Structures are given as structure tokens and as C-alpha cells.
Amino acid sequence: MSRLGKKPIEIPEGVNVKVENGKLFVEGKKGKLCQDIFPNLNVIVEDKKLFLKNEADPKNKKLYRKTNALWGLLRSLIVNMIKGVNEGFEKVLEIHGVGYKGEIQGNKLILSVGFTHPVEIEIPKEISVEVNKNTVIFIRGIDKQKVGEFAAKVRKIRPPDSYKGKGIRYRGEYVRQKATKAGVEAKK
Predict the structure, then answer these.
(1) Domain for residue 187, yes or no?
(2) Is 159 left (phi over 0), alpha (psi -120 to 50) or beta?
């Protein structure tokens, strides 16, 4: 039985939660989000609290186990939706390297990170991107998954180098640098 799924979810002030036709709608000051409810799970909204119930038959062990796994997952998704429409999510990337920089032109993020040409990335509509001092990229949005995926996509263009530390990394990410071969000279 899912221990996490059994915990009720507090609904903060200013957030509206509605269940219709197997879908959960969450609306807050930052926007709206929608989530499909998995089969054999029931969502109940009472007194500014949200409860999840497993409706699967315990005699069918395979289905019951799968539904238990989805029970905790659905609870986590709902908590993230409520936090997203109320506060929002943010990822911060830092660009390290001489001459490396980022800028925004229209709805594109343009990165100059050591390639022969600048790399252009289309910014999704649900996400806002801000570049500060040409080296710090703020990615904000209400959907945690989309913010994380876009941040990973940007970081993947030039991941941090393990020898010099150059590249794009998350704020606070530690990059372990390898030692170079000291004392070895090139043969002439």
C-alpha cells in the first residue's frame, strides 16, 4: 500500500482544484494545469484538502501493485501542479568559459559557447527565459517537467568540461576537474 499516496494534500488559498471526466484541473494566480487521473484511482476534494483513493481490487495482485505505484506518482504530480500554479518553478544555469555567452532574440535563446556558429534554441510558450550578465540563464514556468526538460536541453549543448570546467552547468553544481598529465612535453 502506498504510504505517500494516503497522505492528504493541502490546497492553499487562491488555488482552485476541480475534477471532471477523469481529469484534474488546477488553477492559481500563475496559470492553469491539467492532469489525467490514472485508472483505478479516485480523487476527492473536501474542505481545502485533496484525497487519493486506490479503487483497484486487492485480489488482483498485479493490477493492485501497479495502481499502488501510480498512486504515489499521481500524488507527487498533483503536489507539483499546486506548487507550480501558486509559486512557479525556476532553474538557473551558469555559462563558464572565456567568450561564452547567451542572449535572447525574440523567442529564441542564442548561445555562443565555443562552436563555429551560435546555437539557437526555440523557447516554448509556457516557459519564460531571462539572461542576466550574458552568463546566467533563468528558466521559469509553472510546469516542473517542462522547466526541467528545457534546462536539460540547454545544458546538453555544452556540458561542463572535466578538464577546464568550461560549459553550461546548473547553479551550485559541482564539476570535478581531472588533473592533466604534468611534466609530459610534446615531442619535437
Answers:
(1) no
(2) beta
Query: Residue 146 phi/psi, 5° resolution?
Result: -70, -40
d(CA 55, CA 6): 13
CATH number at residue 164: 3.90.930.12
Say whether 184 sits in a helix, a strand or coil. coil
The rounded distance, in Å, linking the Cα atoms of 1 and 80 is 22
Predicted local confidence at residue 165, as pLDDT:
81
Coil, strand or helix: which one is 87?
coil
Classify burial at 24, counting beta carbons within 10 Å of its beta carbon; exposed 0-12, middle 13-18, buried 19 or more.
buried
Is 177 within a domain? Answer: no
Helices 61-86 and 144-157 meet at what angle, rounded to 10? 80
> What pLDDT sits at residue 93?
92
Query: What is the spatial distance between Cα 167 and Cα 100, in angstroms, rounded to a whole number?
Result: 8
Q: 73-114: per-residue pLDDT in tens?
A: 888 999 999 999 988 899 999 998 888 899 999 899 999 988
Residue 70 has what pLDDT? Answer: 86
Residue 2 is predicted with a pLDDT of 60
Q: How far is CA 70 from CA 50, 53, 113, in A?
A: 16, 11, 41
